[in-house]
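Workshop exercise sheet. Pairs work together: one partner reads the sequence aloud, the other fills in the structure field after running the prediction. Swap roles for the next sheet.
Pair: D.N. / O.F.
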Amino acid sequence: MTSMPTSRKKPRPLPRSFYRRDPLIVAPALLNKLLVCHDGRAGRIVEVEAYRGADDPAAHSYRGKTPRNAVMFGPPGHMYVYFTYGMHWCSNVVCEGTVEGSAVLIRALQPVAGLDLMHAARPLAKNDRQLCNGPACLTQAMSISKLQDGIDLVGGDAYALVDDGVPPPVQPVQTTRIGLTKATDFPWRWYLADCAYVSRK
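Structure field:
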């Protein structure tokens, strides 16, 4: 199991300009940033996937704006939450690049704070590693649901993506995305090498 990255830098929310870029740039840059909840729960991002609007047949926004994906066409830096498989929520951050409707799916976190609250929210997790090692797991552990769809991660006070000075990895693992039937050859998934908290290697 890899050691947990640490920094003495004062944590600060990522600025709007961070997200106002192509998701293929934003996604790997999100690695090692923190997803923080107002109640003290926090996890370091260790795995992400990019979805690129009309250029990406696997993106929810590929065929245009709908009530379900409307947040993806809004300002960058907001959270897009969707329901999948009739039972799970997944959390994304909206980006803005060369096409509209772009976002980055947060696939896995390494828990760093509020683990007692995470275990209470996710009682089926047998250990800390299982708390956030998948997109549905982390939304349960962080109590993210449809209520958070559209919230501002830059200026809001409920959830934020935070930089505490730990840089993204110089050479993250880059692979194709998981669980798709379209655009299965796009290498738009990144994760930390040798990290025990990723969803799948």
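Discussion prompt: The beta strands are 12-13, 34-37, 42-52, 79-84, 88-95, 102-113, 159-163, 173-175, 189-191. What would you look at next?
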